[in-house]
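ok here's the first one, seq then struct tokens
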Amino acid sequence: MRAVLSKAVGGPDSLVVEEVMDPTPKPGEVVIEVKAVGINYPDTLIIEDRYQFRPERPFSPGAEVAGVVDAVGEGVKGVFKGDRVIAVPGWGGLVERLAVPASSLIPMPEGMSFEEAAALTMTYGTSYYALKDRAQLKPGETLLVLGAAGGVGAAAVELGKAMGARVVAAASTNDKVEFALDLGADNGLIYPSGAMDKAAQKALSGELKLATGRDGADVVYDAVGGDYAEPALRAMDWNGRYLVVGFPAGIPSLPLNLTLLKSVSVIGVFWGAAVARDPAAHAANMAELMQMWKDGKIKPRVSRTYPLEEAHEAIKALGDRTAMGKIVVVTEG
């Protein structure tokens, strides 16, 4: 079978496509014939050894896949060849066939495409865990989403609306803000690209305060970090919850006196670790997300698809932060 491999530390152009042995299922496992692979920001990090996990090389990136069960291992019950499923292996997904524990499978709803299925679990799973479990977002509250056109940001916009919040979408270009408004955001804001000095940060904080309303944001969903973090923190309401999701613009240093003055909670969001620690809560969240999809409240936006041979271009496109919604690699033309 074909596999996209990281054989040396490097960027997307360091990846190679090679023929490798097909997997066989061990007891408790199934082999999936992979149809689509969602590309996520961790894929840009893991191949450069900048992610929390560093798998032994050679390995394949690709954290979430959708496909069809091709073989069933000994002892597996309730899963059958031909079942349409989703899996989140963390890495290893950019291949034509993948062995995973049968217990980790998520059934695909009827009518969902493989591209949608590969684009849903990580982004919506992360954002739902953040908004529901970590921030406990309530109907009527104001949610500010930084990076609102990216994978997790777009999911946060949709989920915020589905949960009854007023959503303000912030992004770096007019096209990205328009994209977030099409997802249902109530208001949008273009923030400057690149580094900001203190005067620019102060100006951005004022703009965020105007966009979120007189009292400021109840919840900030920060999938950007960098110089955008402090202005967003300054634009928060009393008892606000600041969600730390990602750092494509760099790891920020927050002035903690602001958290005291506003009684703001800064809350980390590590969805992957939460899934491992509480699989029952994860299963419940996924069931709720699948129901939201069935009800038409959420719909993954796949902006670009690439064939397996061009997986490096897919990861490159995500890394340059030009993509809106999700990028998906498909194994068949």
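and now the second one, same deal
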Amino acid sequence: MNNPYYTISDYYKKTYGEKVYKLPVKLSLTCPNRDGAACFGGCIFCSESGGSFENLPSFMTVDDQLNKNREYIGKKYKAKKFIAYFQNFTNTYMSLSEFKEIIRACDKDYILAVSISTRSDSITEDKLIFLKQWSEITGKDIVIEVGLQTANYKTLELLNRGEDLADFIEACNLINKYGFRICAHVILSLPWDDIKDIRQTARILNVLNIKEVKVHSLFIIKGTKLSKMYKNGEIKMPSKETYERNVIEFLRYIKPDVAVQRLVGRAPKEETDFCNWNTSWWLIRDEIIEIMNSCGYTQGDKSHKVIYDKIKGE
């Protein structure tokens, strides 16, 4: 099946010359919108695990988690090179000395890069300066994953993000100053967003020089505030067809050189009240690809850059 979008696996092969897989690392930490620094309660969709479901226990050292995951994932996928991925909660929300310690633990021969998932309000220049120095010394690439979710400020308030679009823009400008790749997280089945919000989100990411995106469907975790809203009939989830349309529109507006990490989020069925319309994530992905191919759509074919290049070519 021909991919009409730029996959992260294609980027890895182009950059590193071989298959590369992420090694998840779970730390014992929290978020500023949980402890009151930004607000309380956390995002209404986030579970107590902080967005990770298959990670090793956080009491294990970074070194032990990397080695154990390398042994399992390397054997399963016959991979030799990896990316250390700090996934759950806000992985820059700690002191500089703590941050240095966890990053230095990633200086291993089999680690090509470090990917750090965090929030806009927790991007600080002192940590970026350290990452720049460490990257230059070790030769490891750095990717900062930042959650935007949507450009709609009203939706961000409803999600209890505790940060807004301006925070995201400010953080991206600071990260770009140090030349790191940015991966933006977006949710494309938010009940309060329409197709205009989808387009606007993509266009803003283009302006901010985002290099990677991770697309999520909104799944509803049991015990969350979102779960209560869902059960009380306060929200209605869009259809699978609407989600697929949203993803396609997003891909058509995002620039063609932005690597796409995924098209569908997923969570364990037993932990959710709603997840992917009871459909396998790979089936939704394949349907999106099939629609795009049958219609002749490709990533970025509606982006300003592509349109401008076509005009110049004429």
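notes on #2: The CA atoms of residues 133 and 212 lie 23 Å apart. The chain has eleven helices and nine strands.
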